[in-house]
Design goal:
The longest helix is centred in the middle third of the chain and has 27 residues, at 28-54. The chain contains four helices and no strands. The chain has one domain (2-83). The chain is an all-alpha fold.
């Protein structure tokens, strides 16, 4: 499954880059829509982190994937989970 997921994420990366090029030649409403995708991406990342942690991944492993320390990963995503009563 990881190979399929990596291929899918690669396609998504190419689409996001292409969207940036297209919006560069478009009007402000398209720019606003592209900027709004940032919130969607942040929510998708938070959901992925929630799932990884719920599946037993450590904050150290999550932090390593995110280029953060264990403490940095927990501060970024773990406190959000605790505040929602999830942890």
């Amino acid at each position: 499954m990881s190979v399929e997921t990596m291929s899918w994420l690669g396609m998504l990366r190419r689409m996001i880059r292409a969207a940036g090029r297209r919006v560069a030649e478009a009007d402000e409403p398209e720019l606003a829509t592209l900027l709004a995708l940032r919130d969607e991406l942040d929510a998708a990342i938070a959901s992925a982190v929630d799932g990884q942690h719920a599946s037993g991944r450590s904050w150290e492993a999550i932090g390593k994937a995110a280029g953060l320390t264990r403490q940095g990963a927990f501060q970024r995503w773990g406190q959000r989970r605790t505040n929602k009563g999830i942890a």
